[in-house]
Amino acid sequence: MAKRIAVVGTGYVGLVTSVGLSDFGNYVVGVDINTRIVEKLNSGTATIYEHGLEEYLQRNLKTQRLSFTTDIDAALKAAEIVFIAVGTPPKEDGSADLTQIERVVHSIADNLDAFQVIITKSTVPVGTNRWIERELTARAPGKEFAVVSNPEFLREGKAVQDFFHPDRVVLGCESEKAREYLEDVYRALNLIHVPFVWCNLETAELIKYASNAFLATKITYINQMANLAEAVGADIHTVARSMGMDGRISPKFLHPGPGYGGSCFPKDTRAIASTGDEFGVDMSIIKEVIAANEIQKERVAERLAFLTGPLKGKTVCLLGLAFKAETDDVRESPAITIVQRLLEQGATVNAHDPEAAHNFKALFGDRVTCFDTEFEALAGAEALLIVTEWNEYRNLDLARAREVMTGNVIYDTRNVLDSEKATSLGFVYAGIGRV
Ligand code: UGA
User: Fold this and answer.
1) Average confidence (pLDDT) over 26-42
2) Among positive and negative, which fits the CA dihedral 160, 268, 206, 100?
3) Which residue, 67, 129, 142, 312, is most buried by CB atoms nearer than 10 A?
4) The whole model's pTM is what?
5) Residue 118 belongs to a domain
6) What gap in Å lies between CA 88 and CA 385, rounded to an integer?
């Protein structure tokens, strides 16, 4: 049976969850404190760039199964199920800032009446859901509720696809009654045989961190191996492909690059390291990964300077500012560290990104010039530096690039260009982990 759901927070996870759950036939109210966001969403405009999201948003608004509001009390009162999908940004010390979660939990307690299932989608440190249970018991004595941990594994850029076709649904759920509610909410996924993992709260919380930290480790591993491949004259793509042929390893997440970024891996690796410290458990592998990833980002400007000579007074064309392709998100993007270093060394940075230029400008202002097309950004540049693997860069017209640039250096940190073609046109080409 369709459920009445409130989703608190309309960021990446909250918005995709709201739209997806209403598409499953549930009645969903998305809640946000920001009036502008709520108005925009109610008018059918997606507030984030995510493939397919706007169509789903409009479709479900039309059926009136989906709406957005700033009135959290009304939304909570009407809901049988509440999804918490607010942000948990990192604090100075790397641990997660739970202020927004606390605020929502207190609102839930204030509005709790009949039995309600409270589901945490936000990535929260192990122990947080147990704390939510205790807090609700203390603030709403005698009221009936169940707390569930349902971590999200959406990838930015593929969030809609990931929502409708997840590899698994993890449910930290210790109540039979809540389990029945969840089976209703996710019936559509059950029908397509998505595996459901039922476990306790702490296990569900740890699954999320263990997965993200493992992926960050895998990327860092291949990045270091790529650096070694470069030094010894091996080709990292052949190495990675062959490693991936071993079913135990799998070929995914073995693409070398300028270091991982985004709103998840940097934050979650720091948070799990901090949890280890808190419990006195050695998380040295993850700490090493965090440090190695910083070095990988720093390495880009160093390598570029090695190829071009001192960067002072040189113009560098930087293609790609988002932390990965298919998103406008620049949070912890390697481009941030790279641009800082280029500017520190006295280079002029002319940049292009099909989606993220606006967000990057918000950080760097006039210190970086962003152009509408690649070729405007390339004009007069001594070097071309590729930082994000946008598809349009794979087919870049290198002959034309050669004509408009004044220099001939290409440093391709995503290995997207045809190195032989570049060399044949007179470019000095360097990738990552390639000879
Ligand atoms: C990641 C996880 O993949 C999701 O499963 C998870 O739900 C999400 O974090 C989250 O915790 O919310 P996301 O941050 O969107 O998703 O991005 P990824 O596609 O995982 O990429 C992360 C970073 O790793 C990017 O900077 C990307 O360029 C880099 N990367 C990825 C590589 O350098 N090499 C690879 O082989 C793969």
Assistant:
1) 97
2) negative
3) 129
4) 0.94
5) yes
6) 33
- 317 is an active site residue: no
Angle of the 12-23 helix axis to the 53-62 helix axis, nearest 10: 50
CA distance 359 to 399: 30
3-state secondary structure at position 136: helix
Alpha-helical (H) ranges within 233-333 are 236-244, 265-279, 284-308
Mean pLDDT of the chain: 96
Whether 423 is in a domain gets the answer yes
Rounded Cα gap, residues 257 and 286, in angstroms: 19
Indicate the top mutation candidate among 324, 337, 414 to test ligand 1's pocket, ranked by most ligand atoms within 8 A of CB. Answer: 324
Q: Is residue 168 part of a domain?
A: yes
User: Which residue, judged by its Cα, is nearest atom 36 of ligand 1?
Assistant: 253
Range of the domain at 172: 4-199
Based on the fold, state whether residues 66 and 193 are members of the same structural domain: yes
Q: Using CA atoms, how far apart are residues 431 and 426, in angstroms rounded to an integer?
A: 16
What's the CATH number where 410 sits?
Answer: 3.40.50.720
Domain termination residue (choose one: 142, 175, 199):
199
CA of 159 to the centre of ligand 1 (A): 11
Closest CA to ligand 1's atom 6? 153
Which residue among 173, 264, 317, 370 is the active-site one? 264
Only one residue has tokens 């709103």, namely 263
CA dihedral of 229, 232, 238, 242, whole degrees rounded to 10: -90
The tokens of 433 are what?
Answer: 């982990």
Q: Is 390 in the pocket of ligand 1 (CB under 6 A)?
A: no
Domain match, 99 and 178 both: yes
pLDDT tens, position by position, 95-141: 789 999 999 999 999 999 999 999 999 999 999 999 999 999 999 99
Largest CA distance in the chain: 76
The total domain count for the chain is 2
Token pair of 62 as six digits:
């039309």
Verify that 192 and 271 share a domain, yes or no. Answer: no
Residue 262 Cβ contacting ligand 1 at under 6 Å: yes
Instruction: Tell me the β-bridge partners of 8.
Output: 31, 84
User: Mutation test of ligand 1: which of 50, 219, 353 has the most ligand atoms closer than 8 Å to its C-beta?
Assistant: 219
Select the more confidently predicted residue: 94 or 4: 4
Residue ending a domain, among 199, 220, 249, is 199
335 lines ligand 1 (CB under 6 A): no
**Atom 29 (ligand 1) nearest CA:** 260
Residue 19 token pair: 């739209």
Residue in 313, 359, 317 with CA at minimum distance from that of residue 339: 317
Query: Three-class SS of residue 283?
Result: coil
Contact 320 CB / ligand 1 (< 6 Å): no
